[in-house]
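User: quick one, fold this
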Amino acid sequence: MNFFDKYFFGYLPQNFKNIIRGICLIVLAILLLELALTFIIVVILIGIISRILMRFFN
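Assistant:
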């Protein structure tokens, strides 16, 4: 975090630093949530497809 404080946030006033950090955290949280939901949907689809294939080939 020291690298970001020195080079990325170093020339901004404190209130802008907090706003930018908040926006970055919100974007990161949205991306992680989207990735988790996509992973869960893919796992569910693979499970449904494997059940269907087991009924046909069993």
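User: anything notable?
Assistant: The mean pLDDT is 86.
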